[in-house]
Amino acid sequence: xxxxxxxxPTKLSGQVKISASKNATLPILAATLLFPEKIEFTxxxxxxxxxxxxQILESLGAxxxxxxxxxxxxxxxxYADYELVRKxxxxxxxxxxxxxxxxxxxVSLPGGxxxxxxxxxxxxxxxEALGAEIKLE
Length: 137
Prior knowledge:
- By secondary structure, the protein is mainly α.
- Strands 1-3-2 form a three-stranded antiparallel β-sheet, with helices on one face.
- Helix 1 runs parallel beside helix 2.
């Protein structure tokens, strides 16, 4: 296995710019639903999946400005629009925050995935373990 070995009496110092990660950003964006206030971001990746997820948040009532701020203070909807949810697998991530904030949520099962089966059972099982009643229709 490759590794770096650094020796010497000098301590490392400096700054490293960390690039944004889509897979870390999507759950963080979903978590903004838990906060009825403006949240500012400094490094959201400008990817189509991020922009599409922001559209899902907007459809719930959030206000989004220039890939920099998300304000969920006006979110009152407890259901995610099927036409949006069906297009993105990660849209299931809004289920938990909506349930936590409002005590109920309706989110369609997300659409298929081009890289194979990735069930959402773990999300549903976790919520049931925390006391939620899940009804699939």
